[in-house]
Amino acid sequence: MSPIEIGLASVVAIIVLVYLGLYIPIALSMVSMLAIWLLRDNFELSMNLLKIAVSDSVMEYTFATVPLFTFMGLIVAKAGMGSDIYEVMNSGFRKVKGGIGMATVGANAVFAAVTGSSIASASVFAKVSVPQMLKYGYSPRFAVGVVAGSSVLGMIIPPSAMLIIYSFVAEQSVGDMFLAGVVPGLLLSVAYIAAIWFMGKVAPAYMGGRTSTEYEWMSLREIASKTGPLISLIVVVLGGIYTGWMTPVEAGAAGAAFGLLIAVLRKKMTLKVFWEALIETGHITAAILFLITAASIYSRMLGLAGLPNELAVILEQNQMGIYTIMLIYVCLMLFLGTLLDTASIILIVVPLFLPLIEPLGLSLVWFGIVTVVGAEIGLLTPPLGISCFVIKASLDDDRISLKDVFMGALPFAFVMLVVLVALIRYPVLSIGIL
Question: What pTM value is reported for the model?
Fold first, then answer.
């Protein structure tokens, strides 16, 4: 077999193995090492490249952000700040048709600015928001669809684990990626709210529901008491990064310490909860860093096989422009989104397309935002849609089937696709504030 054939076969093998249920980092590492062995007929070389991959990836100082932001997000979730911000948002939207859905989007956007996790958002708001929407007569599909759609904000609005993973693969600044994620995240939030308003006008029967009378207007003092801790945490973390006072690692450490202090003052922190947060942080961190190591050896294998260069030659021979390349790229991500999770998609396709984007003089930060948004659509599409599975498991309600969750999420996946097209067409939306 030629190097190109080995490279192609390895990519297909990785996708098949992951789809069959093999742990993603194991699939990436195992197939990549085997491919390097076949390419160079040298098993010792493949082992040496694995050692280099470890030293060049997880030993990097930048990746200290992973456990710090993970711990901060878990502490915030356990301190009940998600339900507090939801109550405030619901008070503001209580007289609007679909207001509870809009409040869910707004609360998810604020919550995402601290947790950085779609899964955490899906779990929290499935328990907080869906029962309220059902109580006021909203259709089950709309209720779960709003939570599923807005949960993806956790992976776009910084701090985001997916932005950190991309920053490693593309060798970009974590701080720049966080900056670039702000406007797209807010844009998607506004698009979701507009879509809910549109549904209320055009398809009221599908939405169902009535305006909320339970939530009264809150006084400024009540709003400050419920939102103050979370807003102050956001200011400390993101403000520190954006003003240049702190590096992402320092901001993560400050946020983790401040979040822990808030949880203690709110009397939400016990030794048991603290220990559970530490253990869960360890599990999540180990999984992410294992992914990063596997991605490093995979990228080296692709370079040895010459697959990215061959792909660049094919596209150049066919005189494909940037929009054609991006169309192919987005279609590939949407297809893989039906099979793989977000991290897998980023780790598999980004190393293939980076050599095509760099010569065109395009911003790799912009490309990263497009990548994360495109890959996140997969969280809402069957059969894998992780957010949808999390919502179903969190609800434990026999009245709502997994099909209802996927069908409810479909309109919001379409909204994401529209926003993705806008981000591709107007890169300034992502990189304008850099």
Answer: 0.80
